[in-house]
Each structure stands twice: as structure tokens, then as C-alpha cells.
UniProtKB/TrEMBL annotation:
Active site: 32, 59, 151
Pfam families per UniProt: CheB_methylest, CheR, CheR_N, PAS, PAS_10
Organism: Candidatus Methylobacter titanis
Coiled coil: 655-745
Reactions mediated catalytically: L-glutamyl-[protein] + S-adenosyl-L-methionine = [protein]-L-glutamate 5-O-methyl ester + S-adenosyl-L-homocysteine
PROSITE patterns the record matches: CHEB, CHER
Protein name: protein-glutamate O-methyltransferase
Residue span(s) of domain CheB-type methylesterase: 20-209
Keyword Transport: no
Bias (Basic residues) ranges: 1-18
Alphabetically ordered keywords of this record: Chemotaxis, Coiled coil, Hydrolase, Methyltransferase, S-adenosyl-L-methionine, Transferase
Superkingdom: Bacteria
One MF term in the entry's GO annotations: protein-glutamate methylesterase activity
GO CC term (a single one): cytoplasm
Length: 972
């Protein structure tokens, strides 16, 4: 299983208060350019009572106020607020990051801070999503919308490793697909969806965040793990069931499978699902220099002690178990390189970095990472140990060559041994205690006495205190105690590699991990067919390694068994071999010395060569002894060979010729040496110039890359601001339409003037007072003649501008209409005076109504003063009013009289038809009648005759409008 997990709690959080119980998921939504449309679409489909909290992180212009909160509040009924420091996140609410702030979450509360990274290099989405994964674990959900760059990729990786849900917008639906594509290609996305389908997936995904399956389903889980072991060879049965079950549940949910038995059958029918499940169970989450303070302690306290007593040419061996995508292995390599350069150590470093997943090992070998790693790697280390490429950083070759990556199962395969440092962080937290107790002795067995074990803050050595002594309890550094207890434990343990010797050794694993190439094949073939038989010995001649068949030159010595080469040498070889070894101890090699060796009763010519060889393991000088047969006849005697070797030619001319050739050869050699020296000097100068040019180009390239990143970030922010402004424009257009319709329908003439009384705009009804047309906007109001009688309003407007006191008065137009004119200061949103506003309200009808009311009151007062009963009728012969004497004489009330027709006043017998004709004549021809008598029967008065007089009341139009009916006399 890939052995990288969620980020451990940093030291700054070690003393934290009790965490509040939050049973609701928190969804982090990240977007950049083009993200506003995605946000709007998402919340149009998100139910307001989902039980989830939503936190929006977008790339915002730090100098521009964001209106994202206002825009989204119009779309959803959930409260949308701008985040504040220490604000507690609550379900069914939306929180928006403010401009120019970094935001994280801790104990369910939002933490705001001033950005530390320069503008253009910030990764706010990654920072929040990583803190969300650390704080909420499997209840964290991450979504990436439209945007350029790679921000959010590492954040989704952290959420995925914590067991949460990760979603990316379908790239074809995104306005800018950079951010979604980056996360999808990295393999950290569980769902790729259009925006409108995301809320539904989130709601269904909440069920997969529940506690593990009930015990009755464990049989199904075991069947699934058995199928996985059969297909992949990897056994997950000793991994923590809670973690395994959650991830199986997530695969079941994605395949719409309800129970484990059905999913087990689905695995049999779909072999590709086994690969997906295997990848799901691997936790590929890590980052560079995880727990910064731990690596500071490693560099300042742990490694200097380990390296202090190491001799030159020492090989410092490190094993990083569960390296995931390689960040931790490279982090350790960088720290070691810094120490080597700082203290000028002369030794080699071998870092073995292993993991269970082949795809993550492939990524680690490439050493290529997104630009988001700038959050974890200092700018100095980025410049020194990384190469900036188009869309990320690549680890430099000098660091990559320090690390060998290989696929290894820490449970099934044997460990590396003779290690100085073993790093296994955030692996054992996912293993059952039984397996943890078996791994700790294995780690001790792999370390040298005094070697250091490096664990995560959430792990420990358990009860194995006899194997390790703590060096740093906070960051879990342990020194291996020299003891054989771990070896004995290994013999009785149940780890597969201790009982199944057929598995490959670590060296075999590394060998198979390296890619075969033509040069390696050629080297092997040359060694096989052309390399002489050789023996490696120490300075005393003790054999350490044998290459080839040495039976023709060496044989077991009689007596006690020995591996000393001089004792084992055959006849004819022993004396020369002893002499050559002594010479080699003085630093003088022996090359191709001819001698005769007796084999099978006869002497054979052999060439002997002895060369000095340095042993990198313990800095002990070694000797390489090589034997090579010559072409001399086997019957040639040693004396003859010796004689040939020591004889001298007698011809003087031959000697002179040889001397001349030797002198010529020396001259040519000297000339060649001088030319080579000159060429070397020129090449050296050229190389220095090239290095200088390369450094300048690299510096220029880094500056251009930085400028590119800044411009890209600014462009994203401008796109976001532009989207917000477009939304604001639409909103303002709607408001403008609303204002136009409002002003057009309230029938109030309005004229807006600036401080020079220049017309800004006016409403339609204002043309009834001033003769205005559309082209008059921008002209002075004094140029327009008003349709008003009397004094103009411009003097009042100047007065309002001077003292800011509103003025209100009635004006009358030439056509007789009356208006209430109000002149008030024009105030901006900042409460600044920027002109005046003239409003004209038509009060003609109001004045008429007031006059009618006044006349009516006057008439009623007059009527009430007359002693005779009086009734006022309208054109429908209904009672408008009656005098007090009428109510008294006829014993009726106003409620029984006013508004009723005349003939319904009582049960008396009016000659109503004749009376109606008379009254209509009065109303239509303005004629009066007097002393008209009618019969009327009153229940309280008996039968009476009424003597009536009627006259019309003329209105303002000159036409009769009312009838005054007077009862002059009541005749018994």
C-alpha cells in the first residue's frame, strides 16, 4: 500500500482545545478565471437545506473589492457571507474568501492571514484544501472549477488521501480548463462532472462518509480483499478496516452497488475494477519537507551526528519506505546535499526509495512536480535543486542520481540492510497493531547499530523500547540500540519475506527497477568474453571475491583451510605473486608480467597483473589480481621464457635505430601533450564561458518565468473582476429599467441638474413644465422657457445649492394646472453634493377636491343654520347631506339618510314619479319650483302634507350638480 497519509498536526497546533463535534461535510470550492459562471450555476442547483457548508476560494484582485458575495446572494437562499477571521463554519451557509487574504480552516473555524507569497505566486486554493483535509479528514470535499494553472491539484490530493470526495468540472464545459485538467491528469479526481450535476453527487456522497459497514458485512469485505490479493498479489487484510472499508464504500457508491456481496460479484465480472479498487486503496499523499520543523531537526541535530565519524569515501545508506510520488525521498536527498556542500564531506549517498504502486514510482523517477510545490520548498531550494519548466519544476539530475526508486511491498519483500537512516512516515497509522509490532523489529534489523529511524508524529515504536532509544520524542527520531533481539524476532515473525526465501532481495529489486540499456548489455558481454580471470584481495592477499575460473592458477592449500592467495598459488606463481603483492602495497602496480605456472604436470605461460583497488564500503585498499594466458607453446620451458625476457640484442645499429625511434616518439609525445594541454585550457575557458552564459540564461529564464506567472495571475484576477463587473452591469441594467419604469409610472416630473444647473436627465412628465426634448441633456436649464406663471425656479435652485436647504412651493402652468415644486440637493453615494433635483407633482385634482370639500363644508354649515328641514341631492337623487332640523323633525339619523335615494327615506307615500320629473327638470334645465305639495306618511307623525321648494346648485363648470330640497311647511 502506498505509504503516505494525511499531513500530521504541526507543532503550532500541538496544544489545541477540544475539537467541536461537526457532523456535516465542508465543501471547498476553488476557481479562477471563468469561475463566476460556475459558482452561479452550482448554487442554482444546490438545495438550501443540504446540510453541507460551502467555502469559496477564488483568485481575486488584492486591490479590488469583491462583489462575489452580493452576486451569489441573489442566486441562493442560503446566507452568503464574506469570511472573517475565527468565523465558525456552519451548515447550509456559504463563505467567500476576502481579497488579499490567505484562508485556512482549523477546528472548523476559518483562519485569515496576510499572504506571505508575492503576488502572482500564491496558491490560495491549495492552501485551503490541504488544511481542510487535515482538519475534516473524510468529511472534506473539494471541487475545482474553471481556471488556468495548477492551483488546487495538491489540495485535491490531500483530500483524496484523507478519504474525502474530490470533483473537477468537465473540462469541455469549463471556460478555462487548466485547473481541472491538471487535477484530472494527476489522478486525484474521483468525479468529473458538469457543474449542474455536482450537488447531486455531493448529496449521494455524504452516505459514503458515514461510519464503517456493520459487522454483518465484514464477510463481504474479506471476500473483496481475497479477490484483490489473488489478482494483484498484495494482501490488505492487516490494514485498518476503517480505512479499507471507507475506500471500498466509495468504489461501491461510484458503481451504484449497495452491498459488499454484490460488489464482490462485480469485481469478478469486471477485472478493470480490481485495478481501480487497488489504486483507491493506495494513499498517495505526501509533499516536500512535510513537517518543516522535523526536517530542521533532521538537518541540525540528527544528520550531523550520524555523519560526524564517517571516513572518506563512505557510502551513507538511506531507505525511504512508502515514498509515494517521491517528495520525501528528494527532501532527504536535498538536506544531505546541503550538508555535504556545507561541511565538505567526501562520501557517497545511496537512497533507496520504495513504494507499492508502480505508477507512483514512475512519477517519482521522473522527478517532475507542479508549480504548487513552491508552498513547501523555499525559493533558495527551488533555485538550487530544481529546474523550472513550462508547467512545473523538475528535480535536478544531481539530486535524482542520489535516489533509486523501486517497487517493493514492505510486508512481503525483505528490507534493505546496513542502513544509516530509515524513514517510514505515516505508514503504520494505517496498519493494524499486530502488523505494526512486527514491522518495528524489521526496521531495527535493517539499520546499522546506531542508525536512526524517522517516523511521523502520530507513530511510535510501541513496546519495543529494547530496540530503540529516542533522540527527539516530538518529531519521532529513534536510534537503534546494538542488540541481536531484532534478528531473533525476525526468525519467529510472520512477515512473508522471513519464511519465503523465493522472494527477491532488495538488490535484485533495485536491479530489476533499473531500465536495461544497450551500454549495460555491451558491458556484460565484454566482461564475459574478454575480461581476464581475476581475484580481489586485501593487502595481505586474502581473497574477497573471485571472477572467472581460477583453477589453473590457484588450488586449495594443504592443512588448515585458508583463503590466502599466496598460500593457494600453484608452482611457479607463488614467489612472483608474493613479490608483486608487496610492490602493490607500496603503490607500484605489476602489469602483464610473464611467468610460467605448472598445471596438470606441465608449465603454461601466464601474464600476471596486480592493480590497486579502493573499497568504497570501508575505505580499505584492495588489490585486483588478474591472470591471462599467453600464446607461447605449452612445451616451452621457464628457463627459455626467462632467457627471452632478459636477453639483449647485440646489433649496435639496431640499438641506434631503437633510440632514434624512441627519441622521435618522445618528441611526438611531448608535442601531443602540449597540444592537448592547450586544447584543455581552451576547452576549460570555453566551458567557463558556457557556464557563465548558461547561468545568465537560467537567471533570465527564471525572471521570465516569474514574470509569466505574475502576468498569468493578474490575467486570472482581471478575468474574475471582469466577470464580476459584467454581472454588476447586468444588475445595474435591471435596476435602470426598474427606475425608468418607476419614474414613468409615478407621474412625477423630475429634472436632474448638476452644480452649474446643466440638465443631466429628466422624466417624461417634466416636459409638461419645461419644453424639453432628448437633445436638451447637457444644456443649461436657463435656456429652456418654462410653462409656468410667475417667478422662475432657477433662483430657488441657486439658493438650495448655497445653503443645502430644500425648497417647496406651488406653481401654476399657463394652461391652469397646479404643481407642487420641490427643489432638493443631489447627493451621491458618498454623501457629496453634486447638483439639485427638481420634482413636479401635479396637484390640480387635489386642489379641486380641497375646494369641493371646503364648499361642501361651507354648504353644510349653512344648511345646519336654517330652521327648515333641508336635503341636498346629487344627480342620481341620492341624499348627499341633510340639515340638523331634518333629522330632528323626521326622527332619523345620518346613517339612515345619507347615500340613500330620496324615495327610500321612509315608508311614506311620496308621489315619487311626479317629484322625480320635477327634480330632473331642476337638474337639467336649472329651473326651480316652489310650494310643491306631496303626501307623506310618517309612522311617528301620521299622515302629513309636505310643501317643498327645490333649487339647483351650480358647480365650477357652470352646470347644475346638486339639488337643494327645502321642506317649507308641514301641513297636518
Amino acid at each position: 500500500m502506498t505509504q503516505k497519509k494525511t499531513k500530521p498536526t504541526p507543532s503550532a497546533r500541538s496544544k489545541k482545545p477540544p475539537r467541536q463535534n461537526s457532523d456535516f461535510p465542508i465543501v471547498g470550492l476553488g476557481a479562477s478565471a471563468g469561475g463566476l459562471e460556475a459558482f452561479e450555476q452550482f448554487f442554482r442547483h444546490a438545495p438550501p437545506d443540504s446540510g453541507m457548508a460551502f467555502v469559496l476560494v477564488s483568485h481575486l484582485d488584492p486591490s479590488h473589492a469583491s462583489i462575489l458575495t452580493e452576486i451569489l446572494q441573489r442566486i441562493t437562499t442560503m446566507p452568503v457571507v464574506e469570511a472573517q477571521d475565527q468565523m465558525q463554519v456552519m451548515p447550509n451557509q456559504v463563505y467567500v474568501i476576502p481579497p488579499n487574504r490567505d484562508m485556512t480552516i482549523f477546528h472548523g473555524a476559518l483562519q485569515l492571514s496576510i499572504p506571505a507569497m508575492p503576488h502572482g505566486q500564491r496558491m490560495p486554493i491549495d492552501a485551503f484544501l490541504r488544511s481542510l483535509a487535515e482538519d475534516q479528514a473524510e468529511k472534506a470535499c473539494g471541487i475545482l472549477f474553471s481556471g488556468t494553472g495548477t492551483d488546487g491539484t495538491l489540495g485535491l490530493r490531500a483530500i483524496l488521501g484523507a478519504g474525502g470526495i474530490t470533483i473537477a468540472q468537465e473540462p469541455t464545459t469549463a471556460k478555462f480548463d487548466g485547473m481541472p485538467v491538471s487535477a484530472i491528469q494527476a489522478g486525484y479526481v474521483t468525479h468529473i462532472l458538469p457543474v449542474e450535476k455536482m450537488p447531486g453527487v455531493l448529496l449521494s456522497g455524504i452516505h459514503t462518509l458515514s461510519p464503517p459497514l456493520p459487522p454483518i458485512a465484514l464477510s463481504g469485505i474479506n471476500r473483496i480483499l481475497q479477490q484483490l490479493r489473488t489478482s494483484t498479489g498484495h494482501d490488505f487484510s492487516l490494514y485498518k478496516k476503517s480505512t479499507i472499508t471507507r475506500r471500498i464504500q466509495r468504489r461501491m457508491s461510484q458503481n451504484n452497488t449497495e452491498d459488499t456481496d454484490s460488489y464482490a460479484r462485480f469485481l469478478k465480472e469486471n477485472p478493470s475494477e480490481i485495478k481501480s479498487l487497488f489504486k483507491e486503496l493506495l494513499i498517495n499523499v505526501t509533499n516536500f519537507f512535510r513537517d518543516q520543523e522535523a526536517f530542521v531537526a533532521l538537518k541540525q541535530d540528527i544528520l550531523p551526528t550520524l555523519l560526524a565519524d564517517k571516513p572518506d569515501n563512505y557510502i551513507f545508506r538511506v531507505w525511504v519506505a512508502g515514498c509515494a510520488t517521491g517528495e520525501e525521498a528528494y527532501s532527504i536527498a536535498i538536506v544531505l546535499r546541503e550538508l555535504i556542500d556545507e561541511y565538505l564531506y567526501v562520501f557517497e549517498v545511496q537512497i533507496y526509495s520504495t513504494d507499492l504502486a508502480e505508477d507512483t514510482i514512475t512519477t517519482a523517477r521522473a522527478g517532475y512536480y507542479p508549480p504548487n510545490i513552491a508552498q513547501d520548498v523555499t525559493p533558495e531550494r527551488l533555485r538550487r535543486f530544481f529546474i523550472k519548466e513550462d508547467s512545473g519544476y523538475r528535480v535536478k539530475k544531481e539530486i535524482r542520481e542520489m535516489v533509486v526508486f523501486a517497487v517493493q511491498n514492505i510486508i512481503k519483500d525483505p528490507p534493505f540492510t546496513k542502513l544509516d537512516l530509515l524513514s517510514c512516515r505515516n505508514l503504520m497509522i494505517y496498519l493494524e497493531p499486530e502488523l505494526q509490532n512486527r514491522l518495528i523489529p524489521a526496521f531495527h534489523y535493517a539499520l546499522k547499530p546506531g542508525g536512526v529511524l524517522f517516523l511521523s508524529p502520530s507513530e511510535g515504536i510501541g513496546n519495543h523500547t529494547e530496540l530503540f532509544t529516542p533522540l527527539n520524542r516530538k518529531w519521532k527520531f529513534y536510534r537503534a540500540i546494538p542488540t541481536t533481539a531484532s534478528a531473533r524476532t525476525m526468525l519467529t515473525s510472520n512477515l512473508n519475506w522471513t519464511t519465503e526465501p523465493t522472494y527477491k532481495s532488495p538488490e535484485d529489486i533495485i536491479k530489476t527497477a533499473k531500465e536495461t540499456n544497450i551500454a549495460e548489455l555491451t558491458r556484460r558481454m565484454l566482461l564475459q568474453f574478454y575480461a581476464p580471470t581475476s581475484v580481489v584481495t586485501d593487502l595481505k592477499g586474502n581473497i574477497l571475491y573471485v571472477y572467472g575460473e581460477t583453477g589453473k592458477y590457484l588450488r586449495p592449500a594443504p592443512g588448515h583451510a585458508t583463503l590466502n592467495m599466496i598460500d593457494m598459488a600453484r608452482e611457479g606463481l607463488q614467489l612472483e605473486l608474493r613479490t608483486a603483492i608487496l610492490a602493490a602495497n607500496q603503490g607500484t602496480p605489476t602489469l602483464n608480467q610473464e611467468l610460467s605456472v605448472k598445471t596438470n604436470g606441465d608449465f603454461h605461460p601466464v601474464q600476471l597483473s596486480i592493480r590497486n583497488l579502493s573499497n568504497p564500503n570501508n575505505h580499505q585498499n584492495l588489490l585486483l589480481v588478474s591472470f591471462q594466458d599467453t600464446n607461447h607453446s605449452a612445451s616451452e620451458k621457464p628457463e627459455r621464457i626467462k632467457r627471452k625476457r632478459t636477453s639483449k640484442p647485440n646489433e649496435p645499429h639496431h640499438i641506434e635505430e631503437l633510440e632514434r625511434e624512441l627519441a622521435y616518439t618522445k618528441e611526438n609525445l611531448q608535442a601531443t601533450i602540449e597540444e592537448q594541454y592547450a586544447s584543455n585550457e581552451e576547452l576549460k575557458c570555453t566551458n567557463e564561458e558556457m557556464q557563465s552564459t548558461n547561468e545568465e540564461l537560467q537567471s533570465t529564464n527564471e525572471e521570465l518565468e516569474t514574470s509569466k506567472e505574475e502576468l498569468q495571475s493578474i490575467n486570472e484576477e482581471l478575468v474574475t473582476v471582469n466577470s464580476e463587473l459584467q454581472a454588476k452591469i447586468v444588475q445595474l441594467a435591471d435596476m435602470q429599467n426598474d427606475m425608468k419604469n418607476l419614474l414613468d409610472n409615478i407621474h412625477v416630473g423630475t429634472i436632474f441638474l448638476d452644480q452649474q444647473l446643466i440638465i443631466r436627465r429628466f422624466t417624461r412628465d417634466a416636459t409638461q413644465i419645461y419644453r424639453l426634448v432628448a437633445s436638451d441633456v447637457g444644456r443649461a436649464l436657463s435656456d429652456i422657457k418654462p410653462e409656468l406663471e410667475g417667478k422662475d425656479l432657477l433662483d430657488d435652485a441657486h439658493t438650495v445649492l448655497d445653503n443645502l436647504t430644500p425648497i417647496e412651493r406651488e406653481v401654476k402652468t399657463v394652461n391652469g394646472n397646479c404643481y407642487l415644486a420641490r427643489i432638493q440637493p443631489y447627493r451621491t453615494l458618498e454623501n457629496m453634493i453634486d447638483g439639485v433635483v427638481l420634482t413636479f407633482t401635479n396637484i390640480t385634482e387635489r386642489n379641486r377636491a380641497i375646494a369641493v370639500q371646503e364648499a361642501r363644508l361651507l354648504a353644510e354649515s349653512i344648511v345646519d343654520t336654517v330652521r327648515e328641514p333641508l336635503i341636498v341631492l346629487n344627480d342620481e337623487l341620492k341624499v348627499v347631506t341633510a340639515s340638523r332640523s331634518f333629522y330632528q323633525n323626521f326622527k332619523v339619523t345620518a346613517e339612515e339618510t345619507v347615500g340613500r335615494p330620496l324615495y327610500e327615506l321612509s315608508k311614506g307615500q311620496w308621489n315619487i314619479l311626479a317629484l322625480r320629473e320635477l327634480l330632473e327638470t331642476v337638474l337639467s334645465h336649472n329651473q326651480a319650483f316652489e310650494d310643491y305639495q306631496v303626501d307623506y306618511h310618517f309612522p311617528t307623525m301620521g299622515h302629513r302634507k309636505l310643501q317643498l321648494n327645490a333649487r339647483s346648485i351650480i358647480g365650477r363648470t357652470g352646470e347644475p350638480q346638486l339639488i337643494l330640497l327645502a321642506i317649507e311647511n308641514i301641513v297636518d
